Amino acid sequence: MQIKEILENYYPEQFEPGLVDEIGDVAQLKHFQPQDILIDMGETVTVMPILLDGAIKIMRDDYGEGELLLYFLEKGDTCAMTMACCLGDKQSNIRAIGETEGRVLMIPVQKMEDWLAKYPSWRKYVFDSYNNRMDEMLEAIDNLAFNDMSGRLKNYLLNVATINKGNAVHKTHLEIANELNSSRVVISRLLKSLEKEGFLVLNRNVITIQ
DNA sequence: TCATTAACACGGG
DNA sequence: CCCGTGTTAATGA
């Protein structure tokens, strides 16, 4: 079983053997590429994703033409929105997009509910994940409430750099502006001033954090 | 005052 | 030429 081996490599000792077997039976392994939409607004969520490799960005969409990046998911994370949806048969209020390439395990929602009652390790995993998501959400709110655009831009760049395991951010000013729900003029100006401060170095299509 | 919009110039692929 | 970038002038909140 390929999935079983992956689980044993990625999450050793975390799940009971019985649970690992069950996951192996029902989970689907899915590769995604940058910009792939994994979950979109308004979709009814039928699977719960567990991230194995790569990073996924979670965007809030303003129904019209306004997007805002909430936070990134990394290895081992799962999506709190999905969990909330699972319990109520609700639609997704967010959009999940591949930031890098990577792999996710897709688990059908009714299985995930069954396992909550059956496996303590699953319960722990789900609630721990929920807590982590909640913390990240609060961080995002603090960031929005107490930081000006320059501070948000700095945080954003640091986050992206962390996810790409380096200090280079391969994005255009326009992409950054969209993810921060701002305009390119502002981002260009702020980036320029951050460059003067010595916080980063600007090049075409790549920003290097010092 | 500060963000947004439109417009333009420049340079690299 | 098209796109990413840097800048400015006008407008609005």
Automatic annotation (TrEMBL):
Keywords recorded for this protein, A-Z: DNA-binding, Transcription, Transcription regulation
Stored InterPro entries: cNMP-bd_dom, cNMP-bd_dom_sf, Env_Response_Regulators, HTH_CRP, RmlC-like_jellyroll, WH-like_DNA-bd_sf, WH_DNA-bd_sf
Keyword Transcription regulation: yes
Protein name: Crp/Fnr family transcriptional regulator
Residues in HTH crp-type domain copies: 147-210
PANTHER family per the UniProt record, alphabetical: CRP FAMILY TRANSCRIPTIONAL REGULATORY PROTEIN, REGULATORY PROTEIN YEIL
Matching PROSITE patterns: CNMP_BINDING_3 (PS50042), HTH_CRP_2 (PS51063)
Pfam families given in the database record: cNMP_binding (PF00027), HTH_Crp_2 (PF13545)
